[in-house]
Amino acid sequence: MPTAVPESSEGLSPRFQRPGLKDPRLLMGLLLIALSIVAVVSVVSLGNKTEPFYVATRDMAVGEEVKASDFALADVRLAEAGQHYIPQEKTIAEGSVVTSRITSGQLVPATALAQELTDGRRTASITIDSAYASTLTPGKHVDIWIATKAQGTTTTYNDPEVVMEAAEVSTISNEESLIGGTGKSAVQLLVAEESLSAILKAINNEDKINLVPSDYKNQG
User: What is the pTM of this model?
Assistant: First the structure.
């Protein structure tokens, strides 16, 4: 009975031979697999990357000057959206002015701080009843109505006239001790430069000043 002879790969065509460790095709395949793994890991790492950005530690109204303790750092993942906020490497200058309202815990927008207000608005403080002041909030807009005193009298007033529409409420001081515990609160408004003179004159003359929410006229 004939004896079986083991098959040898020596006589096989090169295309049917088992690849060795030095076979360029095997090495190329391993290289492609390694590159694919590295690419996937890099994409995942970039997608999970966080960076430190500034967040507000308190509410800040337009026109306020800020200090270092008004901000903290938080690691967040923003990717391309990060360009709209202030990162750690950009130092916030002491004394910078708030140009748009910032709330506690909010990421600080890159456009929310400047060296000074550039929209021409000025601040004016008006004293009103605390009960009414409690219905206002920073960022709300009010129309300013003034009733001047009638000539020759201190108790009669002319019909009120609006001197400015949509003045923005900046801050509200509800601590009555600041103004004698009289049930009054000081409301700081951001007003147009051309309206400031009439408002200050009314304050000095003790005319009647009323703040009417601007959205009232939109509800009619």
Answer: 0.58
Instruction: Say if residue 207 is exposed, middle or buried (CB neighbours under 10 Å; 0-12, 13-18, 19+).
Output: middle
CA distance 125 to 142: 13
Residue 147, both tokens = 């009733």
Predicted local distance difference test score (pLDDT) of residue 149: 92
Only one residue has tokens 């060795």, namely 20
pLDDT computed for residue 71 by the predictor: 95
pLDDT of 75 higher than 90? yes
Residue 200 CB neighbour total at 10 angstroms = 13
The pLDDT score that the predictor gives to residue 48 is 62
Which of 1-5, 43-47, 79-83, 116-120 shows the lowest per-residue confidence on average (mean pLDDT)?
A: 1-5
Q: Can you tell me the distance from the alpha carbon of 178 to that of 121, in angstroms, rounded to the nearest whole number?
A: 25
Both tokens of 123, joined, read: 């601040």
